[in-house]
Amino acid sequence: MLNLNRVLAERIHSINAPTEQSQEAYAEWTPTYEQDLKGEGYCSPEVTVKYVCDVIPDESRASTRVLDIGAGTGLVAKLLRERGFMCMDALDPNDTMLREARKHNLYDNYFLEYITSKPTSIQEGTYDVLTGSGIYATDGHVPLGAIIEMIRLVKKGGFIVLVTRFILLAADGPYEQLEPLMKQLEEEGRWRAIHRDVFPRYYRNYEGIAWVFQKV
Ligand SMILES: C[S@@+](CC[C@H](N)C(=O)[O-])C[C@H]1O[C@@H](n2cnc3c(N)ncnc32)[C@H](O)[C@@H]1O
Predict the structure, then answer these.
(1) Domains in the chain and their CATH numbers?
(2) Three-class DSSP labels, 141-173
């Protein structure tokens, strides 16, 4: 048991490494990723889906186009499907994680790419909803400026739902400037904030934070 905990702690540590190492760590972790995080009480996919369902009524779900950023093994899509969503695409640079997601046949398209501040291969204004569950980590993950690209990808009136660990926003932390940037984009009239909620037990005893924005 002790040894298992050590292995998991090392995995979590490794995904905070620079991009190439963190991607290798995800590939190695894929076979036990879902089970390990379940054991840790990881609830980011559930919280993400709860907020999506808050803004998309039952009757619109089947035709709502969703892009799941950092889709990983597809935990968000599994829950969205249970709630009536039928049109979902995945974007993730990790082929091993996406291959796991493919087994469940949940997404229509798989974009094997990073999201950064630069445009992805996807056309502007394609989606009604964009989700990002657990996509921020200390290093080697989604950069701050990627929210510019997220806004480009959703339709006017579309929603962006992001859920992550609260501590990452702390002063001197890797995402210290994330909320100031979010606020600046709101002041520029690019999107408006609908929810910003801090909640307990994102995983273990770490707090989480959920944001919902609507493109203006
Ligand atoms: C902690 S996992 C979260 C997976 C899934 N969303 C969940 O909640 O279980 C983070 C995922 O983000 C992906 N990722 C890392 N950097 C990324 C980037 N710049 N653009 C898109 N995905 C990225 C990783 O490959 C990994 O699959």
Answers:
(1) 41-215 (3.40.50.150)
(2) CCCCCHHHHHHHHEEEEEEEEEEEEHHHHCCCC
Distance from Cα 129 to the centre of ligand 1, integer Å: 17
Do the Cβ atoms of 101 and 134 come closer than 8 Å? no
**Burial annotation 93-107 (CB, 10 A radius, 16+ → b, else e):** bbebbbebbeeeebb
Residue-wise pLDDT for 47-100, tens only, equals 999 999 999 999 999 999 999 999 999 999 999 999 999 999 999 999 999 999
49 Cβ inside 6 Å of ligand 1: no
Confirm or reject: Cβ of 45 under 6 Å from ligand 1.
yes
> Please, which pLDDT band fits residue 1 given cuts at 50, 70 and 90?
very low
Question: 103 CA distance to ligand 1 centroid (A)?
Answer: 18
Q: Which residue has the tokens 């801090």?
A: 198
Which protein residue's CA is at the shortest distance from atom 1 of ligand 1? 134
- 34 touches ligand 1 (CB under 6 Å): no
Rounded to two decimals, what is the model's pTM?
0.96
Helix ranges (DSSP H) in the chain = 2-14, 19-39, 44-55, 75-82, 95-102, 146-153, 178-187
pLDDT per residue over 187-212, tens digit each? 999 999 999 999 999 999 999 999 99
> What number does the ligand 1 atom closest to the CA of 72 have?
27
Atom of ligand 1 nearest to the CA of 48: 8
Q: Is 208 in the pocket of ligand 1 (CB under 6 A)?
A: no
212: its two tokens: 């919902």
